[in-house]
Specification:
The protein has 182 residues and is an alpha/beta fold. It has a single domain, classed as Double Stranded RNA Binding Domain (2-Layer Sandwich). The protein is built from 3 helices and 8 strands, in the order H-E-E-H-E-E-E-E-E-E-H. Helix 2 packs parallel to helix 3. It is globular.
Length: 182
Amino acid sequence: MKASLFLLAAILFLSAPFASAQKIKVDVDEGVDFSKFKTFAWAEGQIARNPAVSQIIISAVETELKDRGLTRDDSDPDLKIAAVAAAMQDIQGVGPTWNSQRYKSWGGYGNPSALITVSKGTLLIDLLDVRNNKFSIFRGVAKDAVLQPSTGDPVKDAKKVEKLATSTIKKIFKKYPTKSRK
């Protein structure tokens, strides 16, 4: 009996990391020359319900773009950043204009206007080409990136997800077509 319990406990312990493994998908519009982008700004809209979590995401994304030589220019940007963190509930979003069967973040829909559900715990980051009136040219989707049980204290809740959200954003931007200078 003790051997069976020990074996069960060992199996559960060893399989736990795999059961909750984070899933990150990044799609890039291969027809775009990312080296031409020099400036960025944020699109309007709420990123996360918790303003402290929004600030963590903003800081991490800006760090990644600045490491690649881009600067923030709110008046005349080359790129706009749209991000959504579905921390406490599912939300819906629309696929990028260039979406096709090759792009897996959106399930490879042939219809770029298709609505999909962004599930609880998911972080979605889009980079939008302002100059060419394109929608998303870079999309990173990470599941299990912003799960946070609400304690009623937004600052405390944000601290719980800060390390995971920041490391997730680093992983997403490893797929950005120009490399970090660091």
